[in-house]
Amino acid sequence: MNTALWVMQGSLAAIFLSTGLIKLLQPADKVRQLVPAAFPMPFVRLLAGLEIVGSIGIIFPWLTGILPILTPLTALCMSIVLVGAMIVHSRQQEWSKLPFVGVLLVVSLVVVYSRYATLF
Predict the structure, then answer these.
(1) C-alpha radius of gyration, the chain, whole number
(2) Would you report the helix, strand and coil content of the chain in percent, each value rounded to 5?
(3) Cα 70 from chain centroid?
(4) How would you label 81-90 residue by residue, b for 16+ Cβ within 10 Å and e otherwise?
(5) 3-class DSSP state of 39
(6) What share of the chain has pLDDT > 90, as a percent?
(7) Which residues form a coiled coil (predicted)?
(8) Angle, helices 98-119/70-91, rounded to nearest 10 degrees
(9) Per the confidence metrics, is the pTM higher than 0.85?
């Protein structure tokens, strides 16, 4: 089970890191193709930074053993972001994006539950 959790954590970290870097480093006009115009660009850049920090928080606290409680907490926070993404994609009627975001949400919640249960 530990190996499966590491695969899940690594996958989540890679996805959040890549999406965060895309939103942070791409020019605003390219980011606008990915994100609804209703969100101001500073908010999108802030969200990108949080995704990058989240990708680090899903891996390193558990890996180093320094404050390992941060791993399930980070996964929980990223789950909240994913719920928000599902709401936004639903309102924008981007139905094709919902299954992928839903899978990420389930994987993130599995990491939350499993890593938290391992601590106690």
Answers:
(1) 15
(2) 80, 0, 20
(3) 14
(4) bbeebbebbe
(5) coil
(6) 83
(7) none
(8) 160
(9) yes
Cβ atoms of residues 62 and 9 within 8 Å: yes
Residues 6+ away with beta carbon under 8 Å from 22? 31, 34, 48
Tracing tokens 């020019």 back to the chain, one arrives at: 27
Q: How far is CA 16 from CA 1, 67, 120, in A?
A: 22, 21, 27
The 10s digit of each residue's pLDDT in 4-29 is 999 999 999 999 999 999 999 999 88
Token digits of residue 94: 């981007």
Sign, CA dihedral 30-34-38-43, equals negative
Which of 24, 2, 10 shows the shortest CA–CA distance to 75? 10
